[in-house]
Each structure stands twice: as structure tokens, then as C-alpha cells.
Amino acid sequence: MNNKIIIINGPNLNLLGEREQSQYGTITFEKLKHNCLDKSKELGLDAEFTQSNLEGDIVNLIQDARKKYDGIIINAAAFTHTSVAIRDALSIFKKPIIEVHISNIYKREEFRQKSLISDIVTGGIFGLNDNGYILAIIAIQKLLKNEN
Ligand code: DQA
Q1: Domain range spanning residue 18?
Q2: Which CATH number does the domain housing residue 124 bear?
Q3: What is the mean pLDDT of the chain?
């Protein structure tokens, strides 16, 4: 049976393509979703691609993921820098988690240079544009394959 992963996107990522192209490029959210689902399928993963602007929704998704998914890829967007609730929910998920950021958060404003989740996730990718999602899918597939 295929491993199942969920790709969770935080606030404002639904506006990719429209928002701050100098940071996030021109790819639209729909195109990113399509690319991620394609790559997952190619690697034998069943993937769900989600987005929410609401912190509580993301906490619920992570909690529900315990029973439904073998791994999480998360771009928590602005909540990366603020949400103890998302950090706590991720801490309860005992399977691989990869943190992704499209931009290099360590080259940006000081408030973005702190991630509240980096020290509890399996690994992370930042600053590699939308390719970061594809690299995260490749990485999580390898992690899950080695577990079985
Ligand atoms: C982001 C970086 C965050 O600081 C920002 O709030 C985002 C996107 C990224 O993918 O580079 O919304 O997570």
C-alpha cells in the first residue's frame, strides 16, 4: 500500500503568484499543488495538498494526521514564527515532518529568522523557491521507505 502524506500550507500561500513575487516567484498555488501531486504520484505516495489561513484549522489538520498520514510536509508561513499551538501539535505527530519555506527566511527580516518548529521537525528546506516542495516530497519518500 502507498504511503500517505499531507502537505499543509499556512496563511496567504493561497495567493502565490499574486503576492510578493520577488520573494515567492510567479508560480500560482494551483500550479504548485499540481506539481506536488504529480511528483508524489510519480514516487508512489498518496498526497493531500491543503491550505488554511486559520491557525486552529492547521492544528486540527495536524491532530487528524496522526491517524491518517505517514508523514507531513508543512509550510506554516507566518505561523512559523508565532504559533506555539502548531509547534505543540507537530510535537505529538511521531512520524516524519519536513518544514518548507519558499524564501530564505534567514536572509529576511529579523522576525522571520526564528522558526518555532525547526527544532522539532525531522528536517527542513528553505530558500529554494517552489522546488523546495518537490525536494521535500523526494526526501519524505526516502524517509518513509527506510522505515518499512
Ligand atoms: C514563508 C516565509 C514566511 O516568513 C512568510 O510569512 C510566508 C511564507 C516562505 O515560504 O518563504 O508566508 O513561509
Answers
A1: 4-147
A2: 3.40.50.9100
A3: 97
